[in-house]
Amino acid sequence: MKDRLQQLKKEFAEIVDHVVDRETLEELKTQFLGRKGKLNGLMKEMANLADEERKLVGAVANEVKEAIEAAFGEAECRVSKASMASSAAKEWIDVTEPALHTRPRGTLHPVTRVQQDLEELFTSMGFMVLDGPELESDFYNFTALNIPPSHPARDMQDTFYVDGRPDTVMRTQTSPVQIRGMRAYGVPLRLIAPGRVFRNEATDVRHEHTFHQLEGLVVDKGISMAHMKAVLEVVAQHLYGQDTKIRLRPKFYPFVEPGVNGEVTCYLCKGQGCRLCKHSGWLEIFGAGMVHPNVLKEGGVDPDVYSGFAFGFGLTRLVMLKYGIDDIRHLESGDLRFLKQF
Ligand code: DAH
Among the four 140, 236, 264, 325, which has the fewest Cβ within 10 Å? Predict the structure, then answer.
C-alpha cells in the first residue's frame, strides 16, 4: 500500500513537469486529487487495513497528498508565467506612435498674417523691418514729429498718458519709429515698422483702444513724390490685384509736407461704388507725404541734402477689409470662436 502511494507521487511528478497549459493542469488535478481521483481511491482501500497499519499508511498518504499539492502549485506558477510572457509578446506597444490626444494647434492671428505678408513684400524691395516701444516718450511720439507741446494736432489723437509719468505715453502711432530708425541707422534708409498702437477711444464696431499700423520711411538724395506714389502703387496692387489704382488727396499731417490721404480702387465693386466703399469707388487705407524738414532734422538728417517720404497704413483696417470683418472689437477679443476661422 505504501509503495503504491509513493508510486502515485512519482507518477504525478513525472507528468506534471510536461504540462504547459492551465486546462491540462486542472484535468490532472482532478485525476489525482479529485473526489473520485487516484489518491482518494487508494485512501478508500485503507479502510480494510488493521488499525496499526492504517495509521502508518495514513501518514504516508498525507505526505503524498502534500507533495502532490506542492508540485501542483509550482506547476501552476510556471504555467501562468509562461502564458503572461506569451501574451506580452503578442501585445507589444509601439512607443514611437503619436499620442491620440495631442495638444490642440493654434492658427496665426489675422493681423499677423497680413503683417507677415507685407513684411515679405517690403523686404523684397530692400526695406528693413523695425520695432519700437509701445510705451513711448512724449518726445518721440509727438515733439520729434513736428508736434510741439500744446500744438492742436495733439488733439487729433486721444492719448493714454501714464500716471505720474507726464513724459510717457502709450504710443498713438507707429510714426515715432521714423525718428528712432533715422537716429539708429542714418541715411540712406528704407524701413517699415508694423506694430500695436493705442488711443483713448470709446469703442464701437469701428473704434478700438488697441489696433495695428504699418509705418514706412524712405530717405535718400533726390527722393520725390513720384517714388512715393510708385511704392504705394506696388503695395496696393499686391493687396488688391494688378488693376488697382491709387488716389492721393491733400491732407494735413504735421510730420509731412505735403501730406496726402491715400485711397485704392474698391476691390469689391472695382470702383463702381458699393456698400463697402460707401458708393465712392475708393477705400481709404493710408496716410503719406514728403517727410517734413523738421522731422529729418530730429532724425539727425540734413534736409538740404536729403529728402524722403513716409506712409502709415491702417494694418487693422487692411485686415478687416481683406477678411470682411465688420466689428473691429473681434480682433483683440481673444475669442477662439473668432480666431479659429483663420
Ligand atoms: N501716423 C498717422 C496716423 O496715425 C498716419 C500717417 C500719416 C503716417 C502720414 C505717416 C504719414 O507716416 O506720412 O494717423
Answer: 325
